[in-house]
Amino acid sequence: MEYRRLGRTGILVSRLCFGTMSFGDIADEGTSGVMYRRCREAGINFFDCANVYSAGRAEEILGRLIAGERDRVVLTSKVGFSTGPEPNDRGLSRRNILGSIEASLRRLGTDRLEVLFVHTFDPEVPMEETLRALDLLVRAGKVLHVGASNWAAWQIATALGISALHDLAAFACVQPMYNLAKRQAEVEILPLARAEGLGVITYSPLGGGLLSGKYGVGVRPDRGRLVENEMYRTRYGVESYYETAGRFAAYAAERGVHPVTFAIAWVARHPAVTAPIIGARNPDQLEPSLAAAGFVMDDEVYSDVSDLSPTPPPPTDRTEERIGLSYKGSEEKYR
Q1: What confidence tens digit (pLDDT) does each residue in 156-181 have?
Q2: Rounded to whole angstroms, how far apart are CA atoms 168 and 161?
Q3: Which listed residue (36, 53, 203, 241) is catalytic?
Q4: Terminal alpha carbon distance of the chain
């Protein structure tokens, strides 16, 4: 297993991060334990969780699994989404952040997290309040670093500026959605991360199963998140995504590579990505994901796979600049 530094922190993390969203839900505690131990055997030391996963049960299960080796693993969790029926059981207020971390640490059976992510952007709370609350946690040693998940690039950049202005703990890591079908992160988030030295752990490298080889135009399995889960059906409801999935499955088959391995390796190949987050329902489903850690994708294959889906336009929407066209030499021609 290759290990990489997480952004500008001093923490070394495995090339793959294991996401525990299935713990306590579609994976019971026994199955979760088998997958955790298999990840550790493969060299994974990086585990991602959230206070909302399985209503807190994922943190409880993960806490029991790491009990004998806490100092050998790197943990993340998140705050922001609703955890209960009360109006203050959600959001990025100081009240909710400080209360949520205590509950997460208790469930995980630990005194600190390596990274706490804000799980969503909260437009109703001043950003400075959120950042000052996170800074308090870092100063108290309950959180070593902070990060943002599901924030736009302008929001991340604004937060970095506020943190610098007020000498607050700044985001060290971001967690965007990124896969061959959903490439919006390439436009601004990944370039921002490289420019600012942020760690990047991307989620959903398989697109909720879209890139598992089971989907295509008019092709659907009997079960799976894109079939059973309304949120995922909506997220991947555009027909062009299934066209991409079909082309990708065919290309992987031609190469004799499991599409799951291929999809994760493609995400990992991006120079801004520290570690894709993998996940699984059961141990058998986990194996092709783990294989991505040792899969070397050369420049030619990376380019071929990238060409299977539309490259998003640059932030200026001036697509002509990709091929070097500019005003230099002939303003009339390129106006």
Answers
A1: 999 999 999 999 999 999 999 999 99
A2: 10
A3: 53
A4: 50
* Residue 251 designated active-site: no
**Residue carrying the six token digits 């998940």:** 149
Closest CA relative to residue 54, chosen from 46, 45, 63: 63
- What whole-number distance in Å separates Cα of residue 257 and Cα of residue 26? 27
CB environment 160-179: b (16+ within 10 A), e (fewer) = bebbeeeebbbbbbbbbbbb
Q: Which two tokens stand for residue 262?
A: 């291929």
> Exposed (0-12), middle (13-18) or buried (19+): which is 43, by Cβ within 10 Å?
middle
User: Which two tokens mark 232?
Assistant: 């995922």
Residue-level pLDDT at 237? 87
Can you read off the two tokens belonging to residue 52? 């909302």
In CATH, which of 3.10.620.30, 3.30.590.20, 3.40.50.720, 3.20.20.100 is domain 3-310? 3.20.20.100
Name the stretches of the chain with pLDDT < 50: 330-334
Q: What is the DSSP letter of 173?
A: E
* Residue 202 main-chain phi, psi, to 5 deg: -95, 145
Confidence (pLDDT) at 28: 97
Tokens of 238: 């555009």
| Element (DSSP H or E) covering residue 306 | helix 299-306
Can you tell me the distance from the alpha carbon of 23 to that of 19, in angstroms, rounded to the nearest whole number?
A: 9
Q: What is the pLDDT of residue 328?
A: 57
